[in-house]
Design brief:
5 helices; about 65% helix; mainly alpha
Length: about 130
């Protein structure tokens, strides 16, 4: 490849990475807003914890009335070899269960919260749990 072709390719990659980062930032902001609204509607404080990574997991436990010990399930991912196989399964289970309990805390059917783990649908269920009565 010539230098101009390499430069053009690198510019394309940087633009693509910028778009991906922007989309991820928008999705994070949306999910934090939803979790903050859910925390306020369920009377759980401090709701601003929705904006802080890891702290938002504690807020989810608080909203769903889960013992914080459930968060230990997420630490399986850091165990060598075992975490490779069981880490993603534990994370999916924890997320589904936490959103199940959050939906119940909002007075909705639990399955509505559990389907939050399904890509794309999860953002709609978060919005439904946050913005519905």
């Amino acid at each position: 490849m010539h230098n101009t072709e390499t430069a053009a390719f690198m510019a394309f990659l940087m633009a693509f990475a910028g778009v991906i980062i922007f989309i991820c930032l928008l999705l994070y902001i949306y999910s934090a807003i939803c979790l903050q609204i859910i925390a306020k509607k369920t009377g759980q404080h401090p709701a601003w914890m929705a904006w802080i990574p890891v702290a938002n997991l504690f807020l989810m436990c608080k909203i769903g009335k889960l013992d914080y010990k459930w968060l230990l399930l997420l630490l399986v991912s850091f165990v060598p070899l075992i975490g490779t196989f069981f880490g993603p399964i534990c994370a999916l289970f924890w997320t589904a269960f936490a959103w199940y309990k959050i939906a119940i805390a909002r007075g909705k059917e639990g399955w509505i919260g559990a389907i939050t783990i399904i890509p794309v649908i999860g953002f709609f269920t978060m919005g439904y749990l946050a913005f519905s009565r």
